[in-house]
């Protein structure tokens, strides 16, 4: 296999018609440079897949669930590096150069720093805390655009098929192989869900779920609590 750098960006989506074109438009320079974008749709009924097709190299259908969708995208990827990008997250302008540096390093996986899109002080602090946590523990979440060498991804069996915490679980296994490569130039993640649910409410929910996960509760129980909290927030 060639030692040249090549990238596959895997974007899991579900009911993203309102924003999928904007997300994928931001990735067209990568495609123009010879890299690929793979969209994995989970049976959206709002036309997400059709909107995505002109802006992606492949649109794959999979069962709903980020772990399942990301594994499905990785299974058809051709790139030497896999980057998993949430539909509400934007890469920084220098991402491609930074990822090439990663590929030439002795690390096998990594993540970006993150910044939330809103302008409030609390939102900036949240991004800072997330980055500091990752620097201390090596653990990252999907909002930080995890990337990994494809050979390592395949050797580890990809994401575990669980409904929540798949990013945390996978980064824990990756830490056994190497420390993450950190890209300081941050991805920008939409702060809408934080603002809609309430910043403090969302902080407490996320930390509570992670604490329960570390104590050994199953992701199936945790996702039930997560969905219940989201429903209550909308009432």
Automatic annotation (TrEMBL):
The keyword Protein biosynthesis does not apply. The keyword Membrane applies. It holds the Pfam family Glycos_transf_2. Its main location: membrane. It is found in: Cell membrane. Residues 8-136 form the Glycosyltransferase 2-like domain. InterPro entries: Glyco_trans_2-like, Nucleotide-diphossugar_trans, Trfase_2_rSAM/seldom_assoc. Keywords: Cell membrane, Glycosyltransferase, Membrane, Transferase. This is TIGR04283 family arsenosugar biosynthesis glycosyltransferase. It comes from Marinobacter aromaticivorans. The lineage of its organism: Bacteria, Pseudomonadati, Pseudomonadota, Gammaproteobacteria, Pseudomonadales.
């Amino acid at each position: 296999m060639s030692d040249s750098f090549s990238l596959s960006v895997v974007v899991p989506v579900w009911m993203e018609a309102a924003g999928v074109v904007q997300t994928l438009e931001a990735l067209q320079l990568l495609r123009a440079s010879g890299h690929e974008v793979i969209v994995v749709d989970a049976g959206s009924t709002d036309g997400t897949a059709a909107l995505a097709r002109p802006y992606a190299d492949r649109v794959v259908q999979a069962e709903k669930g980020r772990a399942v969708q990301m594994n499905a995208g990785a299974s058809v990827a051709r790139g030497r590096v896999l980057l998993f990008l949430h539909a509400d997250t934007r890469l920084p302008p220098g991402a491609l150069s930074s990822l090439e540096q990663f590929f030439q390093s002795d690390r096998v996986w990594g993540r970006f720093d993150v910044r939330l899109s809103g302008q409030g002080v609390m939102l900036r602090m949240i991004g800072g805390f997330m980055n500091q946590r990752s620097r201390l523990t090596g653990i990252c979440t999907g909002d930080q655009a995890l990337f990994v060498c494809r050979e390592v991804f395949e050797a580890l069996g990809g994401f575990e098929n669980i409904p929540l915490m798949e990013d945390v679980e996978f980064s824990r296994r990756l830490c056994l192989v190497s420390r993450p490569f950190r890209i300081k130039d941050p991805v920008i993640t939409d702060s809408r869900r934080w603002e809609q649910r309430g910043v403090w409410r969302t902080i407490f929910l996320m930390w509570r779920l992670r604490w329960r996960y570390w104590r050994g509760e199953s992701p199936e129980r945790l996702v039930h609590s997560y969905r219940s909290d989201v429903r209550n927030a909308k009432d």
